[in-house]
Amino acid sequence: MPQPFYITTPIYYVNDVPHVGHAYTTIAADVQARWHRLLGHEVFFLTGLDEHGQKVQQAAAKAGISPQEHCDRLTLQFQTLWQKLGISNDGFIRTTDARHQAVVQRFLQELYDNQLIYRAEYTGWYCTFDERFWTEKDVNDGRCPDCQRPVEQLSESNYFFRMSQFQQRLLDHLEANPTFIRPESRRNEVAGFLQKPLEDLSISRPKSRLSWGIELPFDADYVTYVWFDALVNYMSALEYLPSQPSVERLWPATVHLVGKDILTTHAVYWSTMLMALEVPLPHTIFAHGWWTVDGEKMSKSRGNVLDPHAMVDQFGTDAFRYFLLREVPFGQDGDFAFESFIGRINSDLANGLGNLLSRTITLIQRFSDGNVPAPVASASTELETELQTTAESLLHDHLPTHLRSDRIAFNRALEAIWGLVQLGNQYIDKTAPWVLAKDPACSARLQTVLFHAAETLRFLCLATYPFMPDTAREMARQLGLPYNFSQALLKDPIAWGDGGSGTTVVKGKALFPRVDAPATPSPAQPQAGASASSPTDENSRINIQDFQKVELKVAKILTAERVPKSNKLLKLQVDLGTEQRQIVAGIGKKYGPEDVVGKTIVVVANLKPAKLMGVESQGMVLAAGDEDVEGLVTFKDVDPQPGTKVK
Ligand SMILES: [Zn+2]
Asked: Is 289 domain-assigned?
């Protein structure tokens, strides 16, 4: 049996509502947890809340409620968000739980008994906001170097943890374990920090100024410093939250995911605490970066704090999960630009994955009665071999490499998945099943192509599941695959050719509807075949005046080129008799630019201009087809002049 996979997020401090930073770490941990469950590993995924400390006490006082009531309210907010984001945590820990508090007290007592905690008088500059002392050299003009608020000189008796004793051991550990702190730049940062003498850590606060905390077991006048309480959660949880509680089985943690701002507390405080308790250190502490919004730091005063609830309501859970992990290498800072978010939804998700699924299902329904046909070996070509090699190396090589918890590279895993999406779309373009279907002699080839297209999607379904669980489930449903994703589907290697044939596909809704850029007030899509529904009931019929509002004209296509990053859109320059227009048409999967130049077609000439993938379109071409274009509307017996009215 492989070692159980134990992953944690930080426990989030409940002085404020959840924001995109919390969502980011938690989604990252969720992807890791789902991936390992698919591989058949025992997984324990822990998240939770840090509920003690000065700021919580202050926030509660401000709201006129008890600290516990404040914590309960915030807990609900976090849990609601995790549900909305599809987070599959196995445990949710709250530091106000008596069972956690008992473990903290036990650890404190043990260190105290071993003379690793001592009492001393301390004088220093205290910042109430940051709940910490500063030394004389840290303070600038009587202000806190962190938050710039005034500091006050405070002298108090406190308890200290002999952290300094463990400096060399920690340096040795860092040296001997290259993947202990990730990424490399953060490891260097910690090593740099440890070049300066490490001081002992004050681990108590007098109750006279802070009552909201865990009482020291050996002195009832003090509560525990919030970090000494919070960090212990990673071990205390194992005593009562897993279905079979066991510290022995689950510790040490495989990976702690943390934001870069709390790396020192984890790499130094937590590690030395564990050393003092004679407990092994976690395998990896992985620090990720911060998000800015449109190039600016998020802050309440700027009013640009990203609310994950709003993102999900507007764009969907899976699109949000995808963007956060695709856009920026995990470990680096990232910028949340709405333009790139919408660009990725439209190109990667709608035109890429969504399109591959919908056209494959349509083709199987049209040419194979909705059942995935069996392939014919003699009708296979190198195109199928290329698909197979790419798909198998995706599942069995790229994903295992990029998702390793000591080198997490979500963006590269997603790049590899989208490599297969692109190959799948190109495969359908190149093999052109709609052409094969016209020739009975090609039926073996047609069957083979449809099978391999479905097989590509089966692999994509498994590969996307950790990142986009709802999407994977919907893909499996439409493909007729009997997958239960809570099972270890990737425990044994997935072989190309084992799936699919004989299953019945189901047409479903588009996986990812295209999103209009917010600046464009939802323009009608100048795309062929926008509506396939035939108006049959009285209410949906229009009168002649309605129809006459639409100005249809004959046009001749002068030039055509593909819109970059789109496999669907062609940019056309057309002659309208009296003028030349640019029209973007969604016919690129059926036609290449060379196929349409010189064609005489019909366009809607009085449509409001709109932008598609950033390219202006001044009209719309008429074409037949539902989701996939079957053909442009052209003229057979006559060749009317451009600009001629069509009625
Ligand atoms: Zn401060």
From this structure: no
